[in-house]
Amino acid sequence: MPLLKTITTTIIILQTLWIWNDFLLPFLILYKRDLHTIPLSVNRFFGQYLNQWDKALPALQRFAEQGCAVPKCLSHCPSCSPSRASFMTGMYPHSCGMLGLAHRGFSMESYDVHIVHTLKDSGYLAVISGVEHTAPDLSMIGYDRILSFSRVEYSRIGKPADPAEAAVAFLLSSPQNPFFLSVGLMKTHRPFPKADPDRFPAEAPRFCQPPEPLPNTPQIRADMADFKAAVRIMDDKFGLILAAL
Fold it and tell me: How far apart are CA 140 and CA 239, in angstroms?
């Protein structure tokens, strides 16, 4: 028996890994796709050389297919409000004055440089639904209509409408004038919604590989599962808006 100790331990470790991940053995012996386990099916979406976004994020994929690519677009700041302000003005954060987070009191030096004013001067109706995070108060920016809002940047009394549903209602009202509609969803921002592995098996924590360099622990896997739920909800909301369009 002592001579078999190393061999027995190795077999136990390998079997435990196979049972826990349920990937390697099915990968080796299951050739038909209709017999693939969930990890194998999820693995088909994303790999080293292939990303099937149309399966994981179908609504965003439809939008991408109908839009245009801006390959040299980049974020000028690794912080939320400054990067958003840069995107909405075409200016560096230090040039437009947004040097910190809007909900902590930072703001642009002048909102006349915001894109909504350029569009309004050309006859566009400027509408926002949801979060933008470029001003301490949304009313500072210059939108004609605020359909929904985030508590961190607007003090209006009452519960805000769902940003996607409010945007859909606006689109279905058949506005007569050209319009600019900014829709800001809180997903995939923390706090994440809870994963629902019973309805969406890919959200089971044991199938959620954390990105490097995060440690592969049960807690991180559970967090990644909740993040997947946020991505799913975000894509569903985006799909509602596309359908309305």
Answer: 30
Q: Which of 183, 188, 192, 180 is nearest to 164 (CA)?
A: 183
* Ramachandran category for residue 215: left, alpha or beta (phi over 0 → left; psi -120 to 50 → alpha): beta
Contact 228, 195 (CB under 8 A): yes
Q: pLDDT tens digits, residue range 183-211?
A: 999 888 888 999 999 998 888 898 888 87
CB environment 19-37: b (16+ within 10 A), e (fewer): eebbbeebeeeeeeeeebb
- Tell me which residues of the chain have a pLDDT lower than 70: 1-3, 15-56, 151-158
CA dist., res. 116 & res. 95, Å (int): 18
Peptide bond into 188 cis (omega under 30): yes
Distance of alpha carbon 204 from alpha carbon 45, whole angstroms: 16
